[in-house]
Amino acid sequence: MIEIKGDEAFVQMAVGHREACGSCTMCKNVEGRSVLPVRLIPGIVEGQKVVVEISELLRMRSILLIFVAPLGAFLAGILTSQAIMRAAQVTSLRDELSVAGGVVLLGLWFVILYFLERKARRDERNIACIVAAYPPSAADGVENQGGE
């Protein structure tokens, strides 16, 4: 636990668990450290070692929005562009215009994703939770058991 602000706290993730976390993008890189905002539970103090958890639903939704949906947007842009060109009877530069349509829809998706991410940060359900805490005196002897 590195900082407490009201009902929210900021946890520096332990070095040994970064590979277990993968790249969910919930952590922020602050001065070379992976810092995760978490919902605070009573009795936690700064410097105490804690274990945090991110819900499975949140992880799956993040994967869908970050990896699967952009591919779908790109393909939908290509297919839509091809349909429009077919209806307009465009014959030249058909492939290039189809890819351009895919790129445009992909770019639009990332703009939408930006606003969804901003909205999600304000939603209480989208924050990691502290599920266990080590007593402040025992925290010094515990290495890499969760977040710090």
- Could you tell me the number of beta strands? 6
Categorize the overall geometry.
rod-shaped
Evaluate the radius of gyration.
Answer: 22 Å
By secondary-structure content and strand pairing, the structural class works out as alpha+beta
Please bin the fraction of helical residues.
Answer: 40-55%
The count of helical stretches stands at: 3
> What is the percentage of strand-forming residues?
15-25%
Mean pLDDT: 78
Integer tally of domains: 2
Most strands sheet: 6 strands, mixed
Low-confidence stretches: 141-148
Distance between the termini: 5 Å
Report the order of strands and helices: EEHEEEHHE
Report on this structure.
It contains 3 helices and 6 strands; from the N terminus they run E-E-H-E-E-E-H-H-E. Helix 2 packs antiparallel against helix 3 (94-121). The radius of gyration is 22 Å and the shape is rod-shaped. It is of the alpha+beta class. Strands 1, 2, 3, 4, 5 and 6 form a 6-stranded mixed β-sheet that branches. Helix content is 44%, strand content 19%. It has 2 domains: 3-54 and 124-141, no CATH class; 58-121, no CATH class.
Features:
disordered C terminus; 148 residues; 3 helices; 6-stranded mixed beta sheet; alpha+beta
Summarize, please:
The chain is α+β, with helices and mostly antiparallel strands.
What are the SSEs and their pairings?
Layout: E1 3-5, E2 8-12, H1 18-21, E3 28-30, E4 33-39, E5 50-53, H2 56-88, H3 94-121, E6 128-133
Parallel strand pairs: 4-6
Antiparallel strand pairs: 1-2, 2-4, 3-4, 5-6
Helix pairs in contact: 2-3
